[in-house]
Write a structure and sequence with these properties.
Largest interface: A-B, 31 and 31 residues
Number of domains of chain A: 2
Mean pLDDT of chain A: 93
CATH topology of the largest domain in chain A: Arc Repressor Mutant, subunit A
Strand order of the largest sheet of chain A: 1-3-2
Radius of gyration of chain A: 19 Å
Order of helices and strands of chain A: HHEHHEEEEHEH
Largest sheet of chain A: 3 strands, antiparallel
Bound molecules: manganese (II) ion, zinc ion
Distance between the termini of chain A: 55 Å
Oligomer: homodimer
DNA sequence: GTATAATTGATTTTGAATTTCAAAATCAAA
DNA sequence: TTTGATTTTGAAATTCAAAATCAATTATAC
């Protein structure tokens, strides 16, 4: 956390921006929450602590946090932009359940390798990628099987 | 095309829906366009032929076309829903250029296999997946290198 | 101190996705 | 044919997250 804060401060300095108490608070709450939050969701959490904070500030600060490399956008299939931790977290992909919304974070190094190879073949310079697999999770499959009505 | 039309008609019948000239036209224009179009883009194309058609009809028909399995949603990184052909086209992933928007359609069977294995390990029942790799395409890399100002 | 610039947050605007609803079209009886 | 129920259409309105605006506030520089 402290390390991340320093990272943020460095980023702000580079951009000639200041670390304000609002920005520090948004970062702090974001880091404490190990979820994949929309701007609105994070805003609602912070509002409880500081009812005077504005949505616009949360919106803008999350953007800065992303630009600083601390967060990254996540897409869980709904059409909202979600943010998840990036700094200090390894890259991962998502298995997303279309029944319950639950998601599993996964990494398969072989897949990553093959992706890179694929891009090299196309002389394509990779910046980032996103792999989302939609389906039904183990728990929901069990539920689906259970109620055998007969 | 004819085969696809029949598929669409069958789907409509199953849903107790009718094949109207508007629906046929939307499908026809969509199939003729080998692109990844938003509702609005397709609407603008169709409007030229039939100025009386409504956006809502294009919107609704594209939805039906997707439900019929003829189209699938594509995500090229802008925040708009795009549709691309599915029926008669093999599954593929996208390399998307963040400079020019150009995209390359690719398949790497090994990646697909590993994805399936990964899901099996998690007892996760795959329905579909989406792999998008963002980066800089060969053409843009060349352009970036060229203007060596000194 | 004052000038200058950045930040904030209520509010407004945007834009794509979706819905609404009255008019028009379809279609199967009478 | 009429009729009447049902579906479809398209202009317009609504929704809703994302983004922009702007006057007031705050921080920093001089
Ligand atoms: Mn994640
Ligand atoms: Mn494609
Ligand atoms: Zn589930
Ligand atoms: Zn390019």
């Amino acid at each position: 956390m402290d390390k991340t804060l320093n990272l943020f401060i460095d980023f702000l300095k580079k951009q000639n921006l200041k670390l304000t108490k609002q920005r520090e608070e948004v970062l702090g709450v974001f880091l404490k929450t190990e979820k994949h939050l929309t701007v609105e969701e994070l805003y609602n959490i912070i509002k409880k602590k500081d009812p005077h904070i504005g949505q616009a500030t949360v919106f803008r600060t999350l953007k800065l946090i992303r630009e600083a490399g601390i967060a990254t956008e996540a897409d869980l299939g709904d059409k909202k932009i979600r943010y998840e931790h990036r700094y200090g977290h390894k890259h991962h992909d998502h298995l997303i359940c279309i029944k319950c919304g639950r998601f599993i974070e996964v990494v398969e190094p072989e897949i990553e390798k093959l992706q890179n190879k694929l891009c090299r073949d196309f002389r394509f310079l990779v910046e980032r990628h996103r792999l989302e697999i939609f389906g039904v999770c183990q728990q929901c499959r069990r539920k689906d099987r259970r109620p055998k009505k007969r």
